[in-house]
User: Fold these one by one.
Assistant:
Number 1:
Amino acid sequence: MSISMPMPASAATPARTARTLIEIDRLNLYYGDFHALKNVSLDIPERAVTAFIGPSGCGKSTLLRSLNRMNDLIPGTRIEGRIAIAGTDIYSPEVDVETLRKKVGMVFQQPNPFPKSIYDNVAYGPRLHGIRKKSRLDEIVESSLKAAALWDEVKDHLKRSALSLSGGQQQRLCIARALAVEPDILLMDEATSALDPISTLKIEELVQQLKDRYTIVMVTHNMHQAARVSNQTVFFLNGEVVESADTEQLFAGPSDSRTEDYISGRFG
Amino acid sequence: MNLLQGGNRHQIARRRKIDFCLHLLFAAATSVGVIALCALLIDIIIDGISRLQPGLFENFPSRRAERAGMKSAIVGSMYMLCIMLPISFVLGVGAAIWLEEYAGKNRFTRLIQLNISTLAGVPSIVYGILGLTLFVRLLMLQRSLLAGALTMTILVLPIIIVSAQEALRAVPKSRRDASYALGANRWQTVSRAVLPSALPGILTGVILAMSRAIGETAPLIMIGALTYVAFLPKHMLDQFTVMPIQIYNWLSRPQPEFHELAAAGIIVLLAMLLLMNFAAILLRNKFSKIS
Ligand SMILES: Nc1ncnc2c1ncn2[C@@H]1O[C@H](COP(=O)(O)OP(=O)(O)OP(=O)(O)O)[C@@H](O)[C@H]1O
Ligand SMILES: [Mg+2]
């Protein structure tokens, strides 16, 4: 067994003990005629970091977007199977999509702040959900920015345009914005791929802090990142889950040869 | 050094020559337009400058040129704009929002889209005929300010819809995604994440549409806006006239004094158009700065 990458020194506590929060059961997703997710079954533990890895186009983002039903916005998608969060099927008619998305926050690959002030960016979500009181909004903005490790850098110019921040700061602002609506789950789709190494490191540290309070699912192309920050790693290939295991275990001794080929850089 | 020897000098010289000739050609093409416009402006200013006096704005039209002014026409144009602006804004922007943000992309919406694009190119006299049938006769609004404003609203609607659609389309999808992902519904997303970014572009289109309306003559002649109005319209069902009609009327008289008045009227109209286009450019610049 030869693995060409350094092993994580501090892969966090095993996810074994954690309770399953998201259950994905025989999920099939089609974009028109294209079968993008094939019979995906997967359990995602609560208050832990789950990493999705796999070559480009294998369906990682598609599965991530199924978890907060952002796929509903793409015309022609069809979904079969079941995704349950805390026991509730999120595709059942009783589920209100807006409430679901409030509970399942998302951070995108490219930082996408609104062309508004830093304050208004973070307050956007709470305002959507009816919070009007200035003092309450102030509290939320402060606590969210603190949780996203951005408060110290921006606390003196909250009225400044969010577009004046650096890329890494913008991405942390987007995380703060997602946290401001008090989600339980945070989805991150290659959230650091547009950032420099130092900003990436900051966000990885942030993820480590956040996992005590949130269930985090992240897509990454960076094997080291998956090894460093996640508890569970899921390897995808052509719309299928090839292997899902404890991160340490998956990187130390993958049970599937395709996983091994991928993580040792032989394809993908 | 190879770098200096590799090229075929002859070929390079030829390419430069072609480039230079084309440059001249394009400059000439531009100057034709600019010179024609300047000639027109100078001609009009020479004719009209002596008549550009307070009387022009204070007097009603008159049979005697020295007492004639275009007060009723200026006020009529202004009133018409004031009625048109809110109606065409709501209808035009509403339609654009529906088409861009709500309607799916199916055969029906494609048909509507094709229709709107076609309507933008229909000759304005056709709108006059429509206005005459629909507003003047059918809705019995007579030859009123309201009938004129509604006709013009229909005339500019396609322009507003198309430009508002473009402004909405220019807002990146990632901004909508950000809003939806926070649990916003469609209207919240449109009103809070999309419209603020699109608004300058939308307003630019609206202003340009208004400047089109202020210069349109044919449809208003068609619905029978009067050429001689010696009073200000008091309410929306009064008869009215507008600036281009007054100018047209003056031009069609034999006496040269009236032609000078017409030239002065054209200067006023052009100044207004210039002002509106300038406002549109300011908005456009602001737009490119924030997004
Ligand atoms: N809106 C769409 N319409 C049609 N097909 C799509 C759409 N989005 C994605 N696909 C297809 O679905 C497959 C999975 O796409 P997805 O974006 O989930 O891949 P990914 O694993 O996230 O890739 P990457 O690592 O490049 O982001 C791809 O083959 C892609 O072409
Ligand atoms: Mg992706």
Number 2:
Amino acid sequence: MKQFYDFKIEKIKNLSSKDKNLRKKNLEVFNKNGFPNKKDEDWKFTDLNKILSQNFKNIVNKDFSLKNKKLELIKEFEHNYISLLNGKLISSNFSYEEKNKISLENYNYNNKIIFDKKNSLNFLNDALATGGFSLEISKNYKLNKPLVIYNHFSNSLKETIVNYKNLIILNENSKLNLINYVNESIQENFMVNTIENIKIKKNSSLSNIFINNSKCNGYFYKYIQSNLEKNSNFENYLFSSGLKFNKIDIVVNFNEEHSKSSIFSALNLNNNEHQEIKTRINHNSPHCQSFQKIKDVLSDESKGVYQGKIFVKNNAQKTDAYQLSRALILDGNAEFDAKPELEIYADDVKCSHGSTSGSIDLNSIHYLKTRGIPEKEAYKMLINGFLIETLEKLAEGKLKNFLIKKLERQINGY
Amino acid sequence: MLHIKNLEATIDKKHILKGLNLSIKPGEVHAIMGPNGSGKSTLANVLSGKTGYETKGQIQYNGESLNDLSTEERAQKGIFLAFQYPLEIPGVNTNIFLRTSLNSVLKAKGEKELDTLTFLKLIKEKAAELGIDEKFLSRQLNVGFSGGEKKKNEILQMKLLQPKLSILDETDSGLDIDALRIVADGVNSYKNTENAFLIITHYQRLLDYIKPDYVHVLSNGKIVKTGSADLGMQLEKTGYKNLI
Ligand SMILES: Nc1ncnc2c1ncn2[C@@H]1O[C@H](COP(=O)(O)OP(=O)(O)OP(=O)(O)O)[C@@H](O)[C@H]1O
Ligand SMILES: [Mg+2]
């Protein structure tokens, strides 16, 4: 296979010689392994190397100059925001909050984070990452309004990879609703490789929502590592339809007792879009609950993948873990692959998992049609009904209505 | 209004309707009775335009051949089927479904679609007439509804869409005595000289409330006997033995 990428540490400005050397080493590891393929258990269903080689001629890294891009703010609900351009922090606004309770800075690359996983994309990130942010919420502070992260990308990203890292810390007894929002319709192919480190301290709660508003030809990989202290809560909502390629790789570590995490996903994919969700829930402590519900609707030649692993350590008694994936396949050429895995070393646990995939129920379509509803509309109603269920647990309000609208947009067309 | 001539229907190699004839005029109420498996629901399905059947023969509806019309077009032109087993549709809100349905029909007729508020007022009224608790309307369509509640919901849809030809497939089965009366009242109050009913039932009970102009016996894919309302009462006593 022809080499289709060319990454250079030299393109990153202002590095200390120590940092440069470290980055070079990481790049060497990446170059040795290349992009992941199916031999890697974590990429069992996807030959990323092949996909990229077919869609890119020569991917490079660049040093981006910071330009302000005009912000188009969401009007449907009041919110704070952070705006990122190609992963770099360009502006923020916390007008609904007490300023001294929130700290937001550029990510500090001098603080090395140790990850419990190293895949070649992580190495690539370690080699090339610049930009990103560190966000820290003070003890006992619950944000009044949600925080939207506007992820912007410039039009000049053709054949370019963007790498960055974020750090999010919720100190004791704090609360944050995060919305990761992509609203780009870039036609050129580009890549985004992110590592996010999340720390949720005692009695704190983070909800992390991913929502896309348009179609774009970006190839995204995001690795999220989260560490949960006692009595904390971590919710994830993944509504990232519209991206050409997307893989979200989430690790949840229950390090102390009585915490909860949930992952809900609703994806409507068409053309040759490809989305993957990979989760690893580490029940390292007793009395924790994890919940996962993944729903995909696939048409044309699209592909959905779910790899979900629940690990229960021998001392993690009274673990309650639930995992379900369901796919609706509308087209013979579409594909859904699921690999649910349980690895349990404790005996007093409740774990259940299931996976189904099937086609749309034609009797239901007929029923709707007998009420005068055109066939196309009937399909949309059923697809919407199938996906919208993932929003059930979210509190009623403007944010939920916004998400329902966006999900409908993803289903009905842009 | 409806003329069926020599209708045959086959599905999955099973020949079910075997030359059925039936004519219905505006303002008439027709009842169809007949043994289990004789093809009553199949007739209703074929009239609704359900796919999967191989059919022969003719069905004329208001001068148009039904074969050329899709299910939704039939509905938009006034054919309504109350299902023997209404489907549960998870994730679809009953109110939204009802409004989409009504507006699709209005749109096809070239009439003005209803905005949310006007619709909610209308549906509240109709639901109250049938003794349906409003709470049902904000639930998922038929999901977890009891058998009788599902049947009432079918009649609610009928009253909302105001069809010309209503086909009720065993709408009475599973209804308690009070619900049966409410449903029958619903039909009677909607009945006029313009519209017609085809009522499939196993029991004379319903026909005590909704007086049919004709009673037909469907057996083995054909109408084997047609009579007046008295035929229903007679069948209740003698069963189908002597007819088949
Ligand atoms: N898809 C199918 N494939 C094979 N046989 C079928 C199919 N659908 C219906 N049948 C058969 O056709 C016959 C007629 O079915 P239908 O549902 O029309 O009966 P019915 O008169 O409505 O009966 P009931 O009074 O029990 O409701 C039955 O024997 C049924 O098993
Ligand atoms: Mg039947």
